[in-house]
From TrEMBL:
Transmembrane segments: none annotated. Gene3D superfamilies: Medium-chain alcohol dehydrogenases, catalytic domain (3.90.180.10), NAD(P)-binding Rossmann-like Domain (3.40.50.720). This is Oxidoreductase. Residues 11-325 form the Enoyl reductase (ER) domain.
Length: 328
C-alpha cells in the first residue's frame, strides 16, 4: 500500500515521504481500516516536528483523524463488521495518511450517516474537544456569550457550531477576511478580524462591558493574555491549545481579583479516564449532525498525494475551514 512516512523530524513538507509499505495487520482488539478520508489537523504538523505529546517511533505515518471502511477484524473484536463505515483516531505509528491503517476497536465509532466521508472524518477530534470543553469543563449555559479564538480553524470552527447549538451568543475571532467569511457561515453572531479590530474592545461593546462568559482558546500567547481583559465575572477561560507557539504564564492574582476560572482541557485523557463519556459525546454529536445543527465545513478535498502540502499549509495557518485528504 501507499503511505506517507516520516523518517526524520522536521517541517511536514520536508519530513513526509510517500512510500510503498507492507499492509498493516490487525492485532488483538484492533481493526484494519481502508481510508475514505482523513481530516488534516494541527497536531499532524506537531507530530512531524516531534513537538506533540505523543512521540511515535520513527518511521511513522502521521494523521490523527479519519473516516474509513473496516476491512478486517483482529482477535476478540466484536460490535464491528467488515464493510462498516467508521470514524476515529488510528493507532500510531500507523496514522491516517495511508491507504490502510489500524484502529483500536474500543475507540472506533460508527460514521454519522448524515455526513459524507470528509465531513465525518472531521467530526471526531475537533467536535469532541468542543463538546467536552463547552459542556463538561465550562458548563456553557443558554444565553451566555462565548468567545472563540481561531474560529475558522479545526477546533475553533467546531466550538462555534456547538456554542450556537447550546443557545449561546458566539463571537468568533479570526485572522483575515477569508476566515471571517468562514466564521459567519459557521453561524457566529459577531465576527472579529483581529488584523483589523481589537477583539477586547468589540467584546466589551457587544456585551455592554460585561465581557464573555466563556472564552475558548486554542491559540495561547497574546490571545490568552488579552482574553483576560474581556472575561466576565465568574467567566471560564478554556485553555485548549497553543497554536501560536506561545505558552502563557497566567497571573493568578488577576484571576482572583476578577473572579474567573482558568480551565484546562486535554480531551485525549477522557479516552483513558472516561471512555464511556467519549462514546456518549459521539452519540450526541451524531444526533446533532442528523438534525443539521452541526456539520464540518470542508473547504478543500485533496488526494492522498497532496497530504504533505496540506499538513504544511494547515501548520502555516494559510487554510480556511477544514482540509481533508480523500481516497482516490
Amino acid at each position: 500500500m501507499k503511505a506517507w512516512r516520516v523518517h526524520e523530524l522536521g517541517e511536514p513538507r520536508d519530513a513526509m515521504r510517500l512510500e510503498e509499505v507492507a499492509d498493516p495487520q490487525p492485532g488483538p482488539g484492533e481493526v484494519l481500516v481502508r481510508l475514505r478520508a482523513a481530516a488534516v489537523n494541527f497536531p499532524d504538523a506537531l507530530l512531524c516536528r516531534g513537538q506533540y505529546q505523543i512521540k511515535p517511533p520513527l518511521p511513522f505515518t502521521p494523521g490523527v483523524e479519519l473516516c474509513g471502511e473496516v476491512v478486517a477484524l483482529g482477535d476478540g473484536v466484536s460490535g464491528l463488521s467488515v464493510g462498516e463505515r467508521v470514524i476515529g483516531s488510528p493507532v500510531l505509528p500507523t496514522g491516517a495518511f495511508g491507504e490502510l491503517t489500524l484502529m483500536e476497536a474500543a475507540r472506533t465509532f460508527p460514521a454519522p450517516p448524515a455526513l459524507d466521508d470528509a465531513e465525518a472524518a472531521a467530526l471526531f477530534i475537533g467536535y469532541q474537544t468542543g463538546w467536552f470543553g463547552l459542556h463538561r469543563r465550562a458548563a456553557l449555559r443558554p444565553g451566555e456569550t462565548l468567545l472563540v479564538h481561531a474560529a475558522a480553524g479545526g477546533v475553533g470552527s467546531a466550538a462555534v457550531q456547538l456554542g450556537k447549538a447550546a443557545g449561546a451568543r458566539v463571537i468568533g475571532v479570526v485572522g483575515g477576511p477569508g476566515k471571517a467569511e468562514v466564521a459567519r457561515r459557521l453561524g457566529a453572531d459577531v465576527v472579529v478580524d483581529r488584523r483589523e479590530q481589537d477583539f477586547v474592545a468589540v467584546v466589551k461593546e457587544v456585551t455592554g462591558a460585561r465581557g464573555a462568559d466563556v472564552i475558548y482558546d486554542p491559540v495561547g500567547g497574546d490571545a490568552y493574555t488579552r482574553s483576560t481583559k474581556c472575561i466576565a465575572f465568574e467567566g471560564r477561560l478554556l485553555v485548549v491549545g497553543f497554536a501560536s507557539g506561545g505558552i502563557p504564564t497566567p497571573g493568578l492574582n488577576h484571576a482572583l481579583i476578577k473572579n474567573y476560572s482558568i480551565v484546562g482541557l486535554h480531551w485525549g485523557l477522557y479516552n483513558t479516564y472516561d471512555p464511556k463519556a467519549v462514546r456518549q459525546a459521539h452519540d450526541e454529536l451524531t444526533a446533532l449532525a442528523e438534525k443539521g445543527v452541526v456539520k464540518p465545513l470542508i473547504s478543500e478535498r485533496l488526494p492522498l498525494v497532496d497530504a504533505a502540502d496540506a499538513v504544511q499549509r494547515v501548520a502555516d495557518g494559510s487554510t480556511v475551514g477544514r482540509v481533508a485528504v480523500v481516497a482516490g
